Amino acid sequence: MASFADYDTRRYRTVDVRSGYAEWARTYDDTVEDEMDLALLERLREPRWAKARRAADLGCGSGRTGAWLASRGVGAVDGLDVTPEMLERAAARGVYDRLVEADVADTGLPGGAYDLVVACLVDEHLEGLSPLYREAARLAVPGGAFVLVAFHPHFMIASGIPTHFRSSSGEEVAITTHVHLLSEQVAAGLGAGLRLVEMREAVIDERWIELKPRWEPFRGHPISAALVWRSDDD
Asked: Could you tell me the strand order of the sheet in which 172-175 lies?
């Protein structure tokens, strides 16, 4: 397993996930670009979003993903996060049937209840991937889908940029970050009994350079990846 500390070029003060997102909640939606995750979801051929009767949004944060799922016709969405301040933001969107404060690896949600399980920009905060994949497999109905969107390990290693935010005092603060190679994603998914049915990668292109001009040196580098898994039908 690669350690992000070996590549960190910023050396920001680092805080834990709950503390970091509690403070970031106020400005999160203003700083996270849709190109990172939602644009990648748009490119997926699977799943057929409108056919999902119920979805679980793991690590729902401010509710960006839940709102996107609802706009694509997903019947009902339950959200889960470890940060109360983020859950308050998610609740204000009015798109969730249920919001729960819990860990993505131990959700407490009913097993075999979801046609669709989604986790966007969550895994970089997990030391290991297997617990997340096992929980997603437990939550999914037979034949259900698990969609994961992650920062691409290549970008994290090449840039050395941790997940970070600007505090109210103006300080740049990092949130605990881990690097997970794509091979680790595949191993965790297969280990949980899931089948990989699609994978997409996004690169830093002209749209990204317009948003982040200082990223010109990374033009053409992969920045995020989406993996679509299916649970067994039998």
From this structure: 13-15, 172-175, 164-166
Query: Within 13 Å and on the Cβ side, how many CA atoms surround 167?
Result: 12
Q: Which amino acid is at 222?
A: P
CATH architecture of 32-152+179-230: 3-Layer(aba) Sandwich (3.40)
pLDDT tens digits, one per residue of 87-141: 999 999 999 999 999 999 999 999 999 999 999 999 999 999 999 999 999 999 9
CA distance 66 to 30: 17
Question: In angstroms, rounded to a whole number, what is the distance separating the alpha carbons of residues 39 and 56?
Answer: 19
Residue written as token pair 């397993």:
1
Considering only CA atoms, which of 150, 156, 163 is closest in space to residue 226?
150
Q: Bridge-partner residues for 148, per DSSP?
A: 119, 227
Q: Which two tokens stand for residue 155?
A: 């970008």
Q: Where are the domains of the chain?
A: 32-152+179-230
Contact present, 125 and 98 (Cβ < 8 Å)? no
- Which residue is it, tokens 């970031």? 24
The encoded tokens of residue 214 equal 């200082």
